Every structure is written in C-alpha cells, then in structure tokens.
Amino acid sequence: xxxSILQTYFGDDSPRVREQVTRVVRQMKTKSVRSCYxxxxxEDANMPERLQRNLxxxxxxxxxxxxxxxxxxxxxxxRFLRGNPNGIPSVLLHELxxxxxxxxxxxxxxxxNYKMGSSDVQLDETxxxxxxxxxxxxIDQF
Length: 142
Prior knowledge:
By secondary structure, this protein is of the alpha+beta class. The protein has six helices and six strands.
C-alpha cells in the first residue's frame, strides 16, 4: 500500500490531521491574498541576532525570516538567494506559514529527515502539525 502525501509529511492522514492541515493552508492563502507582503532581501548581519546562528547546518546561515505578528514582511538572506535561487518558493512558503498561521521552527526537512543544527530530530504528529518546514515541503509537492 502506498503512503499518502499527508502520511509522508504529517505522519497520519486521519480526519483530524486533514482538518488541521486544511486550516493552516487556508490561513496561508487568506493572509497572502488579503495582505500586501513586503519582500526584503537582506544581509546576514542585518538578520535578527538569534537567527545569525547556523540553525540548520548551512554554511550560508539562515535562509529567511518573518515575524509571527506585526507587519507582513518576509526577509530573504542575500547569501541564500545567490547560492540557491530555486529554493526561494520553499522559503517564502515557510516564512508565510510563520506569519499567517503562527507555525514554529521545530525541525528543518533535509534529505528525507528533520534536522535541528546538525542533529536529526524525530518529530511527533503534534510537532509536525506545528512545524513551518513541514508545510513548505508539503505544499511544494503540488
């Protein structure tokens, strides 16, 4: 039997998971349509200090940033942009999920595993449903 895309990214495809995923994706859609987002390209040094740390083991540091509340601004790291221009849609989705649906950074999806720093992390269903990278990877499949 083949795993559904919801099982792959969220660990389950139960009605509860479907409802939560639908709610978050709708929030992202609604917020992106109703708000005028500012996209800013910035340097590492201008990123918030707590994000200048290398959170996901990338040599370029953090890829983007958005606050959960406040003005609709998404910041993309110029160094990430130069090194990975094809990754911008995923970063925008990831950051939009923070602002529109108040998701968190619990783990970053890399090579089929979730990581925090250089360590693999196992996320339970509740964490997967609250994790920004889970939504960006899920939506990227469409």
